[in-house]
Amino acid sequence: MKKQKITTFVKELNLRMKKEPIISLRYIHILGTVVFFTSVSSLVILLALYLNQRLKTSLFLVEDYHTLSSNPLTSPSLSPPPPPRRSSGSNVSDEELMLHTAMVPRGEMVMNETHPKVAFMFLTRWDLPLSPLWEMFFKEHKGFYSIYVHASPESTEEPPDSSVFYKKRIPSKAVEWGKPSMMDAEKRLLSHALLEPSNARFVLLSETCIPLFNFTTVYTYLTRSTRSFLGSFDDPRPMGRGRYSPKMLPHVSLSDWRKGSQWFEVSRRVAAEIVSDRRYDAVFKAHCRPPCYMDEHYLPTLVNKICPEMNSNRTVTWVDWSRGGPHPARFVRKDISVGFLDRIRLGSNCSYDGEVTNVCFLFARKFHVSTLEPLMKMAPYLFAL
Ligand SMILES: *[C@@H]1O[C@H](CO)[C@@H](O)[C@H](O)[C@H]1NC(C)=O
Ligand SMILES: *[C@@H]1O[C@H](CO)[C@@H](O)[C@H](O)[C@H]1NC(C)=O
Ligand SMILES: *[C@@H]1O[C@H](CO)[C@@H](O)[C@H](O)[C@H]1NC(C)=O
Ligand SMILES: *[C@@H]1O[C@H](CO)[C@@H](O)[C@H](O)[C@H]1NC(C)=O
Ligand SMILES: *[C@@H]1O[C@H](CO)[C@@H](O)[C@H](O)[C@H]1NC(C)=O
């Protein structure tokens, strides 16, 4: 069709050219102009389409980059995402939870309209037999602490609504002691605690732990420290370096390898680093097999690798290994006395933000339920009431 039209037009033109040479020249001029402008405008349109496409692609890439690898350490202005849906109580996927926590703010000071809080995270087998002592510890300090309890998924007992532990259980999964499932439970606790933006420090405790000082002393000690209290040391013996496997290379070398107590206290930044770690988690799950135990080596090594300057390398939870054997000493009713407690409370020297102090431990384990009665009697002394 078009071709035909053009040919007839050209034929006509030739005819006219013969007839009226001057008019034909004008025709050629007009035709040239039309062709020129048509080509220019189509070029412009094509260019615009191309640029638009490029722009869209790069914008998408930027967005994608942001959600995948946003590092809240460098972008503290990110607002916290809504907490994950609690699917009928107990089944929030860990992946979903950790994705959410990977995006929460990590800054040291998080809010200024409220006090920073200390998150007390209880990793328990069943219930909390020493809870009356803890109730006394927390009394009158509402607003300065948060409580999270990870218990056996089978235990459904709820404390009375007057208790500080009322409705503090997080959706929990079965934990095998000494197995990677225990590490997962610790990360689950940290993830939940990180969702509360006012939580600034995070303590992991067991059901056999007791507080050694009153709340004010513990709170001040933790919130004023610039460093975390996560035990991390190089143990040259077989129960230290002997548990390292060269299969962890190139991610973890023998000189990176550390050991330490499971019972840690960390700042918000270190807590966020721990829950977002996938790399070392996978290395340890693959190559830390008995006699290597993830709960004794993974966090001490991880923190040594990624943020050593943020750690004091010591724990604030006292335990007695002096009796030897694979388990630390467990204390019962007859062990409890003021002298015994004061030796734990004030009987050692350590460094606190560069200063020497004799207050090195804020918590102690392992206390049998039979110690509750003497401890409750001693509480006014312990808490300097
Ligand atoms: C809940 O978790 C269990 C294992 O932990 C899984 O088998 C099950 O499919 C989950 N249910 C839902 C509804 O996500
Ligand atoms: C935070 O503190 C600053 C100064 O102390 C104040 O100007 C600001 O309004 C506060 N912001 C909030 C959200 O309270
Ligand atoms: C803790 O150990 C790391 C090395 O593992 C070191 O860089 C850091 O300075 C130590 N912290 C203190 C307070 O000594
Ligand atoms: C702690 O230090 C003080 C003075 O520096 C010293 O008298 C005391 O013996 C030390 N205690 C321990 C357990 O090392
Ligand atoms: C907490 O204990 C300290 C000593 O460790 C004491 O000076 C202080 O008065 C106590 N605070 C309260 C509120 O009991």
Automatic annotation (TrEMBL):
InterPro entries: BC10-like (IPR044174), Glyco_trans_14 (IPR003406). Keywords: Glycoprotein, Glycosyltransferase, Membrane, Transferase, Transmembrane, Transmembrane helix. It holds the Pfam family Branch. The chain crosses the membrane at residues 27-51. GO terms for cellular component: membrane. GO terms for molecular function: glycosyltransferase activity. It is found in: Membrane. This is Glycosyltransferase BC10.
